[in-house]
Write a structure and sequence with these properties.
By secondary structure, this protein is of the alpha/beta class. It has a single domain, classed as TIM Barrel, CATH 3.20.20.140. The chain has 13 helices and twelve strands. Helix 4 packs parallel to helix 6.
Length: 375
Amino acid sequence: MRNNLILPLLLTVSLAYAQPKVSTPEGPVDFEEYEPVSTLTVAEHKLTRSKYPFIDVHNHQFEMDRADLNKLIAQMDALNMGLMVNLSGRGFSSNTGESTKFFDGALANIQKTNPKRIALFTNINFAGVGEKGWTEQAVRTLEEDVKKGAKGLKIYKSLGFNVKDTEGNRVRVDDPRLDPIWAKCGELGIPVLIHTADPKPFWDPMDRFNERWLELKLHPGRKRSDNNPVAWEQLIAEQHNVFRKHTKTTFINAHMGWYPNNLNKLDSLMKAFPNMVVEIGAVIAELGRQPRAAHNFFVKNQDRILFGKDSWVPSEYSTYFRVLETDDEYFPYHKKYHAFWRMYGLALPDDVLKKVYYKNALRIIPGLDKSQFPQ
């Protein structure tokens, strides 16, 4: 008798899970469309400007060689952004001559407009890895760019993903042919802002347990597997090998090294790699859903966290300000497919906030103008 009661119940639950839509008087509602309006009434502090001027160490501007930078600076002023670091210093051409022309043009445009407000990082052209003399030429170009005014080196996630050498083999992040580049950055005193891999759920099964299911559905090209190109753990291990080997070089680990959702692990990495610092670009939603843990992490590692945003959408900076500065509760992220959960403010102390916003960047990145920032 008991089994006769349990089986229909299990069948009912199973059928409920199988239903992708909910019927309403207006018709069926998909998960993607579901946007409930919260009935919670709490204090709100929607910030459009940061409390202190800040340095965005992770930005991309694609026409800096010819754009009207006064318009860009006006947008920065509205946010209270004191200085922007454009990581795409050499543009995206694989032709060295074209990328050098872009870099020189961008530097000239910045110098003409306002060199106190914008800084450039240079990039490595990985085309030709394996050719005789490639490493030596890459190091020479890096030295020349720094002499011209580059403040650091940016490494895109293509290294480890799809960069191949002249034999058609994947170039690992820790490929020994790149060692002289990392070493030269340490010698020149410039940081390397390095982006390796993507969020771990991109490698996980795309099922109802995957937090990034909606993002992967909307952007199927982001889905990975252990042979596309390798397992997530492999890419991260390759990056950590570089940190471990080049202790005299400072590495800014983009997106908190993809451990913003595991701050205990990230804290252990901070201990293991004293030459590694992190920036918060595109991971603010992870921090906002764990306000107490994130607050404690920021306080503990306050000298090694930098502000970064990544994509240039001025309206989205308000989310960052609100998470870092306020103690607001249960507010939304600006992209549902990145975070369908709500967030909470960390209410960072002013001394920590100043370090994250500008002091750490001024210490780590050489040659930035300090006059526009408070002591």
